[in-house]
Amino acid sequence: MSVLFFMDSGLGGLPYLHWIQKKKPEYRLIYLADNQAFPYGIRSEEFLQERLSLLSGTIIDLYNPALMVIACNTASVSALHILRQRFNIPFVGVVPAVKPAAEASGEGVIGVLATQRTVQGDYLKDLIRQFAPDQKVETQGAPDLVDFVENRLFSATDEEINAILDPYIEHIARQKWNRLVLGCTHFILLRPWLEQRLPGSVGIVDSTEGVGQRILSLLEENEKKNTRITGNSGTPVTEKGQRGVFHITGTGYNKKAYQAAADRYDLDFRAIKEIG
User: Which residues are identified as catalytic?
Assistant: First the structure.
């Protein structure tokens, strides 16, 4: 049984894992929430390059994954090129879905909901200049949503979730957005409630489908070559009948919150104490 690996500073990478879970049930999925360094959005580029290199090396040694997904916009922008240089294994990153939003938006307003660092950073501005140069694009930081998803979402009631979304729903209506880009991976977990609350005229766009299709294309590409992606050592993983694994770094996290997330996606909860 081959292994696919997903990494984020917290829970934001779970939508990508879930997408692949449904498409490729024959793969064993390993998830790592790097809670010790949460959130990645406040970390320097140099820190992220070294941190993700350390984590990737540890996971490769433990599981020999077929492919690794860096399921965080900030981490992908900061460290993906370094990881590809250092490890002989395919890496897939994520970026805010500005391009598909621009292609679907027409004359309407595109709104990007993201972390404050993403909103203020050059990378999002470059995406907008590249893919939506003639369209109206507005951005909105939502740092409180990241903390809520990370620490409360999986134990919160619908009323609590809707309460924290209220000001953003009002902002979207007031600004007359017709496309909402979920520019932080954590926000994808809030999509069901956003879909319930927003009018049908507001199309919600995220990177889950694009990233999932990229993973599938890499797997298919290697199948066509009759050489399954086998990870850094070239030896296929043959364990069968094993559940996926949810790893977490550090010691100061709310175990109940992360256990609930692991259970939701049928993952065994474990800590990687040798890293953190």
Answer: 72, 184
